[in-house]
Specification:
The structure holds 2 protein chains of 2 kinds.
Chain A: E1 16-17, H1 24-32, E2 38-43, H2 46-60, E3 67-68, H3 73-78, H4 81-95, E4 99-104, H5 106-111, H6 115-120, E5 129-133, H7 142-157, E6 166-172, H8 178-191, E7 194-197, H9 223-228, E8 232-238, H10 240-254, E9 258-261, H11 266-280, H12 287-307, E10 311-315, H13 318-330, E11 334-339, H14 352-363, E12 369-371, H15 376-385, E13 390-393, H16 397-403, E14 408-410, H17 428-450
Parallel strand pairs in A: 2-3, 2-4, 4-5, 6-7, 6-8, 8-9, 10-11, 10-13, 11-12, 13-14
Chain B: H1 2-10, E1 23-24, E2 39-42, H2 67-75, E3 82-86, H3 89-94, E4 113-114, H4 119-124, H5 127-140, E5 145-150, H6 152-157, H7 161-172, E6 175-179, H8 188-203, E7 220-226, H9 232-243, E8 246-252, H10 257-261, E9 268-271, H11 274-288, E10 292-294, H12 300-314, H13 317-345, E11 349-354, H14 357-369, E12 373-379, H15 384-393, E13 399-402, H16 406-416, E14 420-423, H17 428-433, E15 437-440, H18 451-466, H19 470-476
Parallel strand pairs in B: 3-4, 3-5, 5-6, 7-8, 7-9, 9-10, 11-12, 11-14, 12-13, 14-15
Antiparallel strand pairs in B: 1-2, 2-13
Helix pairs in contact in B: 2-8, 5-7, 8-11, 12-13, 13-18, 14-15
The complex binds iron/sulfur cluster (2 copies).
One iron/sulfur cluster sits between chains A (23, 25, 48, 51, 105-106, 137) and B (87-91, 151-152).
């Protein structure tokens, strides 16, 4: 049995046991893949890059391309400037991307390579771009890295080139799957709003089978669109942690007003997203979406008795968790433990995560343990002390699920042991319907499995 | 024909093919100039040395990993150790239980422990936090052994791992071993070495290293370089038992503190993964006078040859008799299934891209057993002699390459019309995108691929992927179905 976690909670200060987060560069790499014709580049030793690519490959089951500065001892003593310059030359001559998106690693951060100057001093071919983000892993998490790379996109690319803003909205979707990005685009599209989404990994990490390998698949936000984002009327940042900072940077740099909303998971967050778009751009929400919303409410009505009073433990990335907690509450379930590995306070406004979740719980008349910068050892201890009926989170939850014999729904990043998830959304009304199906199927499968012969029911 | 094949598997004569030792340069379009000498095609005019064991070029998409990765894969299967990563969070979270090494006892090794260094630790040093982490972990988990892995950052800020570990070991009365695996100090091979150094310290008898021949049980071997992926070490242990050889300890599949300590008592080291363990074998020979044999339990031919080699080493007619009997029995048992797959697969073409050279060599032979020719073979960290052997046993026209990048893999697989790629995590989706079948011969394999059972698993897995109905649809998409009579994709 994989249960090595003692029940008794003692204070710890010597690091993590079973982390609920990972490091910045992988977030930056994922964000960079959301630019069309962009090659992410890891400035550090080869190992980091290999790990980040493997991890993303396991989650998306798609080829993930990225280059590395391939540091050796020399570079780590004398600085990696030479390696980066060589890399820039090689990347454009061999792979010929439009953009090369460089992120740092712990190593290059620690030795203090000054990326902006190195990039300025490098030979970048005419018409090609090198952008960068500083992503030391000893701060924040993969979510911070994602946020930092999106800020890099804004800094290097977005331009305000006209006096009057265009009737278009920027959407920064946050660290969600390509399937979610597609769904968010579809929702905005149904309203008839012209949108610029960046980063956009749909078509890159959920690309169709063609019998050909494309170093640069057809998807991704186009550079000219990201440029034009400086001319938009509004930026909607989905998710406080992954998207808000870049939206505000764009506001400062190009005077595009920014609004931060929850990742649209569940009814209320999706409503908010659509209503925001309506209030700024259109008169009406089309019938099609009214219908979808109605269907969602209908399936919840049909199934709500399965959910009532069930205790849930949730873990994962903060933006996903805020949406998910709200949705779980709306199903009549009770989130008793909510934990993210990403520290609160590395971005503007510390402690927001814990406060926001606690407020939601309080409003629903519940109490629960909430923590940022936690690890799964701690979550496991909480569950041992206050058991739950359902666990939701990424693949690593399976150890806890097995040890405590819990029904388990996989959501978030990374999911390394199941396929298809990255193609299908959990955002929007349809995404919520999918979540309802996943949660109730898991709970009812469990009920069937545990039922005595005489209690097994045909109709549930 | 049929008979000859079986006799190959029975291994009366280990086959050696006549080869022409020549190669041509590779045409250079699409290739990075510096990479040219790392690629050769068997069968041209001139024979030249393949360039390998060098640093990758900055700005290439390399499939390679780092020193820490090498150390981690070797040590991680030690089941009852606390594996503590001293560094920032990522290095630990990417190596959390990704390996599929099975345990018959403790599951402690499947947890992820990390000092989770923060900015402050980088500035002021991480030694205190490390000491704290060891204290806390030792208190929580009963373990007599802690491995502390250093990562890049730790190498740069210069924490004195050695000192912290020593103090902790003293304090708790257990072994706390530093693993010098900062990522930038070399490549994966340097990590193997760092791991072996830690293991050598672990097995060192009190009072220092010395030959201890007297205490040795006569027919006891250490099995080096098997990590018990999907239970592979258990299969081999069983074979050896059947021929009268006791396995003293496996390095490191399903191993534990107590067993590893006994390592110097074995009378022979047999070694599967040479990349990771040849240094260990050499050192153990120097320190404890334990000789070693390079063996391979991949494929029928190699398995049979290895069993004979071991029996031959001990020089006992009875053992040899039992080995031959085992080979015969097992071969006959798997033969019908192997032949069925052979029939279905004959004429298909495979490409290989794996970590080490020795595995690649075994794989070529293993493919031949099921009628498949290898048209491309490459490794991440192959050594010169291994490339020499690869060259020798390959067919004319086979592309041989070191530290390949995805574009090269794509190019040669397409050019050579491979139906199948063998590789690791990052290669899988690449193959699929090309409409090429794939099998994992690395971390993510789910069935044992060693020994006779493994040979059948291998054949079955190859068959199930090469002959999957999905490739039919795969060929139709990409414009083939809707675009009128446009079917430029090759028949696979
Ligand atoms: S060194 Fe830093 S960037 Fe590299 S894998 Fe480790 S935590 Fe991530
Ligand atoms: S930081 Fe160094 S040790 Fe860690 S994964 Fe990267 S290259 Fe390997």
């Amino acid at each position: 049995m994989l249960d090595c976690t003692p029940k008794e909670i003692i204070k710890r200060s010597g690091g993590m046991i079973n982390p609920a987060k990972t490091c910045q560069p992988i977030g930056a790499m994922y964000a960079a893949l959301g630019i069309h014709n962009c090659l992410p580049h890891s400035h550090g030793s080869q190992g980091c890059c290999a790990y980040h690519r493997s991890h993303l490959t396991r989650h998306f089951r798609e080829p993930v391309m990225a280059t590395s500065s391939s540091f050796t001892e020399g570079a780590s003593v004398f600085g990696g400037g030479g390696n980066l310059k060589t890399a820039i030359k090689n990347v454009f001559s061999i792979y010929n991307p439009d953009v090369m998106a460089v992120h740092t690693t712990c190593l290059s951060e620690t030795i203090g390579d000054d990326l902006p100057s190195i990039i300025k001093g490098a030979e970048v071919p005419e018409g090609k771009l090198v952008i960068h983000a500083s992503t030391p892993s000893y701060q924040g998490s993969h979510i911070t890295g994602f946020s930092n790379m999106v800020k890099g996109m804004v800094t290097y690319l977005a331009k305000a080139t006209r006096d009057e803003k265009k009737e278009q909205v920027n959407i920064i979707p946050g660290f969600v799957n390509p399937g979610d990005m597609r769904e968010i685009k579809r929702l905005a599209g149904e309203l008839g709003v012209r949108l610029i989404m960046f980063p956009d990994t749909s078509g890159v990490l959920d690309s169709p089978m063609t019998g050909k390998f494309n170093m640069f698949p057809v998807g991704g936000a186009k550079v000219e669109d990201i440029r034009d984002s400086g001319n938009s009327k509004l930026t909607i940042a989905l998710g406080y942690y992954a998207s808000s900072d870049s939206a505000h940077l764009l506001e400062r740099n190009c005077q595009v007003p920014a609004i931060t909303l929850k990742t649209p998971i569940g009814i209320k967050a999706t409503d908010d997203f659509l209503m925001t778009l309506r209030s700024k751009f259109v008169q009406e929400i089309p019938n099609q979406l009214e219908e979808e919303r109605g269907q969602l409410v209908d399936v919840i009505t049909d199934n709500h008795h399965h959910f009532y009073g069930k205790k849930v433990a949730l873990f994962g990335d903060p933006d996903i968790l805020t949406g998910l907690t709200e949705f779980i509450l709306s199903l009549g379930m009770q989130p008793v433990h909510v934990l993210t590995g990403t520290p609160a306070g590395t971005l503007t406004g510390s402690g927001i995560f814990e406060k926001e979740i606690k407020e939601m719980l309080a409003a629903a008349g519940h109490e629960g343990r909430v923590k940022a910068a936690g690890d799964l050892f701690e979550l496991h201890q909480w569950i041992k002390n206050e058991p739950v009926d359902l666990l939701m989170g990424n693949t690593y939850g399976k150890y806890i699920a097995r040890a405590e014999d819990l029904p388990f729904v996989r959501v978030g990043f990374p999911i390394l042991d199941r396929g298809v998830h990255s193609y299908l959304p959990i955002v929007g009304y349809r995404g919520a319907m999918r979540l309802v199906e996943m949660i109730s199927d898991t709970l009812l499968d469990r009920q069937d499995r545990d039922a005595a012969d005489e209690d097994l029911e045909l109709v549930m | 024909m049929q008979l000859m094949k079986i006799s190959n598997w029975l291994c009366e004569d280990f086959f050696r093919r006549d080869v022409i030792n020549v190669s041509t340069a590779v045409p250079n379009d699409n290739l990075i100039m510096e990479r040219q000498s790392s690629i050769q095609v068997k069968g041209g005019q001139r024979k030249n040395q393949l360039k390998c064991d060098v640093e990758s070029i900055a700005g290439c998409v390399s499939q390679r990993a780092c020193v820490y990765c090498g150390a981690r894969v070797v040590l991680n299967p030690v089941t009852d150790a606390i594996h503590l990563v001293h560094g920032p969070i990522g290095c630990a979270s990417y190596t959390w239980d990704i390996r599929g090494s099975l345990s018959s006892g403790s599951e402690l090794y499947r947890n992820s422990f990390c000092t989770d260094l923060k900015e402050n630790d980088i500035i002021f040093g991480g030694e205190k936090k490390l000491a704290r982490a060891i204290d806390e972990l030792v208190e929580k988990y009963e373990s007599e052994l802690v491995f502390v892995y250093s990562t890049c950052v730790v190498g740069v800020i210069g924490d004195d791992l050695e000192a912290v570990c020593k103090t902790a070991a003293h304090k708790h009365g257990i072994q706390v071993l530093p693993v010098q695996s900062s990522g930038f100090i070399g490549n994966k091979s340097a990590g193997y070495r760092a791991a072996c150094d830690a293991l050598l310290r672990l097995i060192e008898p009190p009072g220092g290293a010395r030959p201890i021949n007297s205490r040795r049980p006569v027919k006891s071997v250490n099995y080096l370089g098997d990590f018990n992926l999907a239970g592979e070490a258990w299969i081999i242990k069983d074979y050896l038992k059947r021929i009268g050889v006791e396995v003293n300890v496996v390095f490191t599949g399903d191993s534990n503190y107590r067993d590893l300590k006994k390592a110097p008592e074995a009378s022979l080291n047999i070694m599967q993964c040479a990349g990771s363990m040849s240094y260990m074998a050499r050192r153990m020979e120097e320190l404890y006078s334990i000789p070693s044999l390079q063996i391979s339990f991949l494929g029928l031919e190699d398995t049979a040859a290895s069993l004979c080699k071991i029996a031959d080493f001990f020089g006992e007619p009875e053992m040899m008799r039992r080995a031959k009997e085992l080979i015969k029995e097992e071969t006959i048992a798997v033969q019908p299934e192997m032949e069925r797959y052979h029939e279905k697969l004959a004429g298909k073409k495979a490409a290989i891209y794996v970590g080490g050279g020795f595995k690649a060599i075994s794989l070529i032979k293993q493919f031949r057993e099921i009628g498949i020719n290898v048209v491309m073979v490459g490794t991440q960290t192959g050594q010169e002699e291994e490339y020499q052997t690869l060259h020798d046993i390959s067919d004319d026209g086979t592309v041989i390459l070191d530290d390949a990048n995805p574009s090269e893999l794509e190019r040669f697989m397409t050019e050579k019309g491979a139906h199948l790629l063998v590789g690791g995590v990052k290669e899988r989706p690449l193959a699929y995108k090309l409409g090429v079948a794939f099998i994992d011969h690395n971390h993510d394999r789910k069935h044992p691929l060693s020994g006779y059972v493994g040979a059948v698993n291998f054949a079955r897995e190859v068959y199930s992927t090469v002959c999957s109905p999905v490739w039919k649809y795969a060929r139709e998409t990409g414009g083939g179905l809707y675009a009128a009579e446009n079917s430029e994709l090759p028949e696979r």
